[in-house]
Amino acid sequence: MKEKLTKALQALKQKTPLVHAITNVVTVNDCANSLLAVGASPAMCEAADEVFEFSQLAGSLYLNLGTLTKEQEMAAYLAIRGATLKGIPVILDPVACGAIPRKKATIERLGHFGRFTVIKGNLGEVKALAGLAARVRGVDSLDEGNDGLEACQSLARAYGCVVAATGKVDIVADGQRACLIENGTEMLTRITGAGCMAGALVAGFCGAYEDAFGATVAALLTMSLAGELAQETSGGELPGTFRAHLIDQLSLVDEALIEKRGRVQWL
Amino acid sequence: MKEKLTKALQALKQKTPLVHAITNVVTVNDCANSLLAVGASPAMCEAADEVFEFSQLAGSLYLNLGTLTKEQEMAAYLAIRGATLKGIPVILDPVACGAIPRKKATIERLGHFGRFTVIKGNLGEVKALAGLAARVRGVDSLDEGNDGLEACQSLARAYGCVVAATGKVDIVADGQRACLIENGTEMLTRITGAGCMAGALVAGFCGAYEDAFGATVAALLTMSLAGELAQETSGGELPGTFRAHLIDQLSLVDEALIEKRGRVQWL
Amino acid sequence: MKEKLTKALQALKQKTPLVHAITNVVTVNDCANSLLAVGASPAMCEAADEVFEFSQLAGSLYLNLGTLTKEQEMAAYLAIRGATLKGIPVILDPVACGAIPRKKATIERLGHFGRFTVIKGNLGEVKALAGLAARVRGVDSLDEGNDGLEACQSLARAYGCVVAATGKVDIVADGQRACLIENGTEMLTRITGAGCMAGALVAGFCGAYEDAFGATVAALLTMSLAGELAQETSGGELPGTFRAHLIDQLSLVDEALIEKRGRVQWL
């Protein structure tokens, strides 16, 4: 399996996939810079008058519901339809779906317009979507239960897609396969946007590499490794400096690092 | 009084208050990162379909009118109503109310939907709201008059709330009390967002500490102290580096620093 | 000609022009910080209820179509009308006009409400607007053809304005004059926002210096020089650190640097 990860990274570097993103206003700049750092080409195209056609030109579609305006919501329906018609991967980041009923309603509606290739949330969001009781505070998950794998597998079966739940240990599952990613650092929770950047990277890798399960694991591992290195190079616990170094380190993750330092437990 | 400030900081660190923010697009990421740096939990929830319920779950509501879209304006009416019904503190940042008539009209309307706990603007904005002649340029105050205290007190009485005016010296007043904060650095005017971050921090402190006057002073002092230290650690007058260090230093402000370095003049 | 550039920079530093910006959500913070770094005063005022009056108070208007919401589109029509009525320079950044038909339609409509002083795009965008075949990928130009000068001159004649096309070599032309700017670094393509920041700077310089051709060259040269220096001070190819240093270096560009290091080829 591990060679899938290095192959996914190679594909990303070679193909410079165009990632069409409809995403939240808080971290949109971080998403663009993290995609550029790993070698993808971000395009935030969010107007209802633009997205149906644009989504059909892209390598993947990233839908992040964080600060979904009414106009973005309409655009999301059009974009997922366009992408699905062309078989382009769609990555859903169901931000705050455990705390805000409109998010869940929108996700259900989106499912009638197209299909998700990957759903990537924090554990609270994944559990909420899977219909399980979840502990959330605003956009944050307070959940560190050991029912995460089950929640991912159940949601993956329900939607016929890959599901990833981020947390201290990241979990990735599809109908058959599952794994745990044990890299990362708590510093990623001390800045805004790490979850969104991880979601954007999943879209980047899926736009370049066909196996969505492998692409998702490679993306989350890339994020976690960059976080570990950024913590080392930024000298500890300084969130402002850490954030700049995180983008630096995203640009430096390579196959050797994945081989040497990646701690993925295949289940 | 000074022990109120350290107590407010302690409360913030212990309670991780959820700050519901409806804020401008320019500095929304800075607001989120500054809240995270001091230990609060930001949630930018701005859709009219979401805010009435969400505002009732939060520790405080931060309304920043900087780039108020029509959808945000509608959301603001719903959110202040929700927060006020539950007795949750509401912090208003009346960005550009001296230069743009719609801002002032919106603020007056907001006052019919709920009440403000704190109004925090720059001196020009506070004077404009208090009905005094103000010198502004776009979003900036050109005012350094010595009628600032009077303006704050007058506005505080008019709205029955705490009023803070930022500038070379920050002024905080409510109906009875007033103080001047003499910390800070001119570098805070050389980046965008220092005013917004200060407003977001006021919301953070008010979400954790009941005395809104003390919470506001503690928040503005935290911002000013972090600015001073960031200028020292970033080696002077480099705005890009300063900005990253500002977030770093916000995460490091503690009770000892407030005790040692805070220059608050209680009137 | 070179003394025009130092004079434009002097004017900018002396006048602190107010730049009214309607711009995309991805890089709006970068635009504000880069304008502040060089000494201009940014104001992002984008609500249809606000812009007609506000545009008439500003030193220049920057219209960037990157993530144009419907509300921004309406605001853009009102703002260009207001600015044009007062003879205030209007700078158009036609982001993605080669890839998205709505952008081109909006630009044509804008031309009925007012006039452009400068159109600044990447080469692909300029060619698309000039009616030439352009190679684009999302928001990026893949074009490095040697018909750039011709495209700029043709578009400049069609709109009666200055046209700038950024790329490895930047090209600036109006009806009579033209030049090439040979400074810059590839690192500017490894972060998001360099093109937008350059456009914002053009608006800053045009708000302070009457000759729009000279102001545009000075702005693009300032950006390219800051990029070169930021690459040196940030130690190479680290996009997160580079980005912070870019803002630092923008604040340090001065007349001596332009004299010594600027490589402008006047045609």
Q: What labels describe this entry?
A:
homotrimer; 267 residues; alpha/beta; UDP-N-acetylmuramoyl-L-alanine:D-glutamate ligase; nine-stranded mixed β-sheet; two-stranded antiparallel sheet; 11 helices; 49% helix; 16% strand; globular; magnesium ion binding (chains A, B, C); ATP binding (chains A, B, C); kinase (chains A, B, C); thiamine biosynthesis (chains A, B, C)
The structure class of chain A reads: alpha/beta
Low-confidence stretches of chain A: none
CATH class of chain A: Alpha Beta
Order of SSEs of chain A, N→C?
A: HEHEHEHEHEHEEHEEEHHHHE
Largest interface in this structure:
A-B, 32 and 35 residues
* Count of distinct structural domains of chain A: 1
Query: How many runs of DSSP E, i.e. beta strands of chain A?
Result: 11
Distance between the termini of chain A: 11 Å
- Silhouette of chain A: globular
Strand order of the largest sheet of chain A: 2-1-3-4-5-8-9-10-11
> What's the CATH architecture name of chain A?
3-Layer(aba) Sandwich
Largest beta sheet of chain A, briefly?
Answer: 9 strands, mixed
Radius of gyration of chain A: 17 Å
The protein's oligomeric status is homotrimer
Residues in β-strands, percent of chain A: 15-25%
Fraction in helix of chain A: 40-55%
User: What is the residue-mean pLDDT of chain A, rounded to a whole number?
Assistant: 95
Pathway (chains A, B, C): Cofactor biosynthesis; thiamine diphosphate biosynthesis; 4-methyl-5-(2-phosphoethyl)-thiazole from 5-(2-hydroxyethyl)-4-methylthiazole: step 1/1
Enzyme class (chains A, B, C): transferase
Catalytic activity (chains A, B, C): 5-(2-hydroxyethyl)-4-methylthiazole + ATP = 4-methyl-5-(2-phosphooxyethyl)-thiazole + ADP + H(+)
EC number (chains A, B, C): 2.7.1.50
